Amino acid sequence: MLDEVQTILVVDDHPLMRKGILQLIAMEPSLRLVGEAGDGQQGVELAHRLRPDLILLDLNMRGLSGMEALKALKAADLDTRVIILTVSDSEEDVVAALRLGADGYLLKDMEPEEVLHSLKAAAQGRIALGERVAAILADTLRHETQPRPIDSVKLTEREREILSLIAAGCSNKLIARKLNITEGTVKVHVKHLLRKLDLASRVEAAVWAVKQGFHA
Q1: Residues 87 and 61 placed together within one structural domain of the fold
Q2: What is the four-CA torsion angle of 50, 6, 26, 113, rounded to 10 degrees?
Q3: CB within 8 A of 83, min separation 6: which ones?
Q4: Alpha carbon distance 8, 97 (integer Å)
Q5: CA contacts within 13 A on the Cβ side of 132
Q6: Residues 124, 156 share a domain
Q7: What is the DSSP letter of 36?
Q8: For the residues of 50-86, what is the DSSP string, one character each?
Q9: What's the N-to-C CA distance of the chain in angstroms?
C-alpha cells in the first residue's frame, strides 16, 4: 500500500493558492493530482466522480463552505481521507473539523516542506496535524470535560491494540491491514473506544492516547 501512488483532489477557491498547492504536489512522486475545484459544491461532486485517496480542502469558501463540504463528504462514506488546509487556527474551527471526521488539519502559513511531509504522512494512512494545531487540540482536551482515566476504562485486548495504532496516527484502513481484520470491524471498535473514553473523534483519541503512553 505504502508504495502506491496516492491520488489527490484539491478544493480551494483561491486560484493562486491552488496553483501553489499543485506545484507542491508535482514535486512528490507518491502523490498524483486527479482534479481541482474552486468551490465546495464542485469539490463534493468531483469527489464522488473521481474517488481520490486524499482531498485537500479549504474551510473558507464562497457558497458551500469547507465545513459543509466536509460534512457531505463524510456522510457519503467515501473511502477518501480529507485533510483541511486553511488560514484558520481558531480552536473552534480545529475542533469542529476534527469532530466532523477530518483526517488532518494543516495551516496555510506552514512551510511548503512541512505541508508536503504531512501530505505524505496522510498518503501513508496517518493523521496529518500541524504542530500548532496539535497544540491547540491538546489544550482543548485539557480544558474540556476530561476523558475517563485509563485505569477506569475496561478495554479489551483488541481495543488496546487499536488504540495504540490510533496513537501512532494510523487510519482505519491501515489498522485493518495491520491487524488483518476488515475496515468495518475497525470502525466498530473505534466507535466503542470513543464511547468508553468519552471522546468525540479519533484524532482526539490519538492525542489522548499519546499522552497516556500508548505506543504501537
Answers
A1: yes
A2: 130
A3: 54, 55, 56, 57, 102, 103, 104, 105, 106, 118, 119, 122, 128
A4: 19
A5: 15
A6: no
A7: E
A8: H--SEEEE-SS-SSS-HHHHHHHHHHTT-S-EEEEEE
A9: 19
Amino acid at 98: L
β-pair partners for 134: none
121 in any annotated domain: yes
| Nearest to 209, CA basis, from 176, 172, 160 | 160
Does the predicted model carry a pTM greater than 0.85?
Answer: no
- Torsion sign (Cα): 78, 81, 85, 90: positive
Cβ contacts of 42 within 8 Å, gap of 6 or more: 11
User: Which one, of 10, 14, 94, lies nearest residue 56 by Cα?
Assistant: 10
DSSP three-state, residue 157? helix
**Cell reading at 121:** 504522512
C-alpha cell at 67: 465545513
Q: Which of 9, 185, 143 is nearest to 82 (CA)?
A: 9
Cα-based distances in Å from 158 to 139, 164, 176, 186: 29, 10, 12, 10
Instruction: Give me the domain span that covers residue 154.
Output: 146-211
Question: Measured on CA atoms in the order 60, 64, 68, 72, is the torsion positive or negative?
Answer: negative
User: pLDDT per residue over 81-92, tens digit each?
Assistant: 899 999 998 888
pLDDT at 78: 81
Same domain, 168 and 206: yes
Q: What is the pLDDT of residues 128-144, one digit of tens each?
A: 888 888 888 777 766 65
Q: What is the pLDDT of residue 31?
A: 92
